[in-house]
């Protein structure tokens, strides 16, 4: 170890030859059924070796054989940490992807595809005048001139309030 910390490349090679087979076995065991994926096992092992080598071997310098721990056990504990870190990052990635795909699906949903919760969670929250405006102007068939019944200020106010409630409804669905 002292030779590794001194920067001897042959010492690192010897350390690798001594510990790598046991590291691979430990990683396979720690991964359980996922240990059958050799590329995942190699990825974890590579992360462990990188962790040992980076910063001039600062992680390796933490090993103290006086504590009654074997070097291979120390290296396996690093592998365990790397596995936990990888699994957490994969879980976060999958969560972000699910959320992104869910919001894409919802953005592409036409108004006619909204279900009964549209009635319960949006339309029922509109005031009587907002609902009348929504039905007679916003979702009226093309060419309907119902918006003439509203003054420009009143039209703007109703449209603004309905839009805010609709945005809140759609945001809650994400």
Give an overview of the whole structure.
This protein is mostly helical and 174 residues long. The chain folds into 2 domains: 2-107, Rna Polymerase Sigma Factor, Chain: A (Orthogonal Bundle), CATH 1.10.1740; 111-173. The protein is 71% helix and 0% strand. Helix 2 (9-31) crosses helix 3 (38-57) and helix 6 crosses helix 7 (152-173).
Rg (C-alpha, Å): 31 Å
- Termini separation comes to 53 Å
* Integer count of domains: 2
Helix content: over 70%
SS class:
mainly alpha
Could you describe the largest sheet, including whether it forms a barrel?
none
- As for the CATH topology of the largest domain, it is Rna Polymerase Sigma Factor, Chain: A
Architecture (CATH level 2) name of the largest domain: Orthogonal Bundle
Give the uncertain stretches in residue-range form.
none
Key words describing this protein structure:
rod-shaped, Rna Polymerase Sigma Factor, Chain: A, 174 residues, 2 domains, single chain, 0% strand, mainly alpha
Q: Briefly, what is this?
A:
With about 170 residues, this protein is an all-alpha fold. It is built from seven helices and no strands.
């Amino acid at each position: 170890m002292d030779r590794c910390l001194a920067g001897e490349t042959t010492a690192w090679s010897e350390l690798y030859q001594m510990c790598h087979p046991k590291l691979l076995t430990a990683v396979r065991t720690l991964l359980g059924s996922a240990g059958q994926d050799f590329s995942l096992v190699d990825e974890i092992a590579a992360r462990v070796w990188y962790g040992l080598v980076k910063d001039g071997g600062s992680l390796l310098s933490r090993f103290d054989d006086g504590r009654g721990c074997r070097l291979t056990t120390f290296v396996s504990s690093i592998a365990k940490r790397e596995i936990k870190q990888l699994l957490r990052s994969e879980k976060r990635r999958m969560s972000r992807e699910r959320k992104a795909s869910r919001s894409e699906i919802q953005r592409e949903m036409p108004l006619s595809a909204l279900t009964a919760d549209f009635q319960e969670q949006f339309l029922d929250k509109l005031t009587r005048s907002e609902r009348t405006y929504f039905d007679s102007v916003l979702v009226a068939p093309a060419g309907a001139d119902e918006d003439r019944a509203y003054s420009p200020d009143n039209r703007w106010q109703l449209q603004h309030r309905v839009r805010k409630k609709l945005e809140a409804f759609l945001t809650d669905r994400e």
